[in-house]
Amino acid sequence: xxxxxxxxxLSIIAPLAITAxxxxxxISAAEPKAGGTLNTTSTGYRTLNPxxxxxxxxxxxxxxxxxxxxxxxxxxxxxxxxxxxWTVSDDNLTYSFKLVEGAKFHDGQPITSEDVAFSLETVKxxxxxxxxxxxxxxxxxxxxxxxxxxxxxxxxxxxxxxMEPLLLPIIPKHVYGDGQELKKHPRNMENVIGxxxxxxxxxxxxxxxxxxxxxxxxxxGRPYLDKLVFSIVKDSLTRVLMMEKGEIDYVGFSGIRATDxxxxxxxxxLTVTTEGYGAVGYIHYLELNLRDKPFSxxxxxxxxxxxxxxxxxxxxxxxxxxxAGTGPLHxxxxxxxxxxxxxxADLEKAAALLDEAGYPVGANDERFxxxxxxxxxxxxxxxxxxxxIQSQLGKIGIKVELRQAxxxxxxxxxxxxxxxxxxxxxxxxxxxxxxxxxxxxxxxNIRNVIWSNTQGYCDPAMDxxxxxxxxxxxxxxxxATYAEIQRKAxxxxxxxxxxxxxxxxxxxxxxxxxxxxxxxxxAPWHDVYLKD
Length: 532
Prior knowledge:
alpha+beta; Dipeptide-binding Protein, domain 3; 532 residues; five-stranded mixed β-sheet; 15 helices; single chain
């Protein structure tokens, strides 16, 4: 069941019970033991600070370095983390959090309510969907060092879900409040100071990231591991080979092709699972720059939707292990609705629509051409899908040039500056649509920020639906509104939805307590240990 709030007027848990409750999401039959190095991978990152960057590349290591006020368990319930308890007013407009006594940042400075208030403002101003998550938070009051009071102008049904380390990391004001631009702050990568279970010991972005145990972590006896080593591995096949050889112990967001899953399972010592990603909801889509022709024409977008057979892609390219996407919400979301327009694969209809739109086949057998950008990340999915689209659209006279981004930064610059025609893309729904879905459709979120409304879609009718869903506390009414949002997004062909991602975790049989909450590897790994 989807939970959007906790009991009101009630202290959730006593400080002495924090450790036991946190462990409840990763129970193992074996007795956990301390020590050891966990070897994992990353495809690369530009920053380690989740307050200014979304996505798994930053989020996985960032959630180990920074703590949040709460954690979310397998039932979407908020459980204590940096906040040992909290109360919620009857009108859902006041949340009062009590911080764990004695909690410190990695440099030994105490974590206070001032840091919480500063972190909220940082995320709100700099995160790709900070405004969507926290626009109704008018202020964070700090009556004393251990109490942070959130004052809301209107209810935020998913507020607690937005307080995981991934989405609201508590960052030190004494480090980041020095007046420098937060997104480009040097401490996002150098001498990074957080409050999570692990500290940065070595950061060589082209090679590896090493995190070591935070001996002063606010949960006694955690983390179990002494060290996390993230090797930078961009190639999917290389990751598969390293897993087979036992060079990697654990990989969240494994980045392997669905067709390689069976190969790894046959080793007998590796587990491949898609569980633990309920709060992620990873969807893929073809993003078109809607500002200019030909993609500003709805009829052209409809033609493309009929030319691309997403069911074929799901079956052939993803080995039948994923669902064909139907709209902006993942099929695993409680708000998912399949009651949306469908565009059956039909090349003849696609060609007729292009004729009607004024794009007939020319003397060179072409209607028009465009460049399709292929991101440097998730190449195991974006590459094959791009090649399929190139081939399929070629059949109806559209020439597609594939442009592979050499690195993440290059792709981000192109898309966030709107200097592109089309791109393969993907994003997370996150546990509440306000967090991960609204950002793509809200007129006010057309910003030079990646994974915002970069395609340039704006419709007041959609904004009204988003605004209504954002404050509705009745679950059934919210579902009805989100059904309308999904229907309209597909009718307007804001994106052309591809198959959902094969989001998987691979880990060896020596890994105990692999992260299993709905945030999976995006949650802190303080309970993970290595077996004998």
